[in-house]
Amino acid sequence: xxxxxxxxxxxxxxxxxxxxxxxxxxxxxxxxxxxxxxxxxxxxxxxxxxxxxxxxxxxxxxxxxxxxxxxxxxxxxxxxxxxxxxxxxxxxxxxxxxxxxxxxxxxxxxxxxxxxxxxxxxxx
Length: 124
Hints:
The structure is a single chain. The chain has 4 helices and no strands. The protein is elongated. With 124 residues, the protein is an all-alpha fold.
C-alpha cells in the first residue's frame, strides 16, 4: 500500500490509510452496488403508492370481490411486507458477502495498529 503524503515527524493517520486502501474502496463499492439500487427500488414503490393514493382514488378504492378489502389496503400492506423482505434480503447479503470482508479489513487494521504501537514502545 502506498504511503500517503505526511509531513516529516508525524505518523500517518490510520483512518486515512484505511480509507484510501483498495480493500476499503472495494468494500464501499460492494455496499453501494447492493444498497443503492435496492433503496431506489423501494422509494419508487413507495412513491407509486403515495401517488396512486392521492390521484387514483377510484383504483385504490376498488373492492376485491364482495369483501371490504380494497386495492389501496393491499398496496399499504405491501409496503410493510416489502420493508420486511428488503430487510431480510439485506441482512442475509450482509452476513454472507459484506460482513466477512469488513471483518477481515478491521482485523488487518487493528493488527497493524497494534504492531505500530508495539514498534513505538520498543524504540529507545
